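Thread: "does anyone have the structure for this chain?"

Original post by V.I.:
We have the sequence but no experimental structure in hand. Need at least a predicted one for the grant figures.
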Amino acid sequence: MKAREFKPRRLDMRAFIESGETLGGDEPLADFERLVGCLHENADAARQPAVRWQAEPELRPRRGAEPELWLHLSGSAELDLPCQRCLEPVATALAFERSFLFVANETQAAELDADSEDDVLALSRTFELLALVEDELLMELPPVARHETCPVEVQLDRGEALPDGQPVPPAAAGDAAAEDSAGGRPNPFAVLARLRRDPGTDGGDSTG
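Reply from O.Q.:
Generated one for you, tokens below.
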């Protein structure tokens, strides 16, 4: 007898979990519209690494009751996001591993989800599993995407943090090392070097 074919975009969740089979694959990032919308403006979705995912079902026995229906889902992706410091693309790895309890209907799912630490979802015969994968990856996006070291020199505004978290102070008058050659603006990396050279400097004027 031919095994039943399960399709992740129209998945009979109860039948899949009861089958004990495993689903997984590599999907083009271009198929995930919301993730594509997060890319750097110059990033080509077709050239991004594939979204990898795997779904493993579990029938969890219960004494005196039907087994619980669980789904263990994992996924990963790598997106070129805009760096919030230099605005160039920064490759950002995303990954998740989550478990979901499936129950008979939306009402039961809402009641259990409110009182449980577990993620509870309603069973469906046409469950969109890849949309759930996308949901979980979106929740893994960093609040701020930044390079460890930006590939281009960055002119930071006064008060913004340098890469090591130290704020940028105003440049001292006449300090040529703290000015760039283009327009005399404070160069944050030169300022940082000066501060490290003179750790006792507090930036204030001494008065008699």
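V.I.: this helps a lot. Residues 129-139 form the longest helix (11 residues).
O.Q.: and DSSP finds five helices and five strands in the chain.
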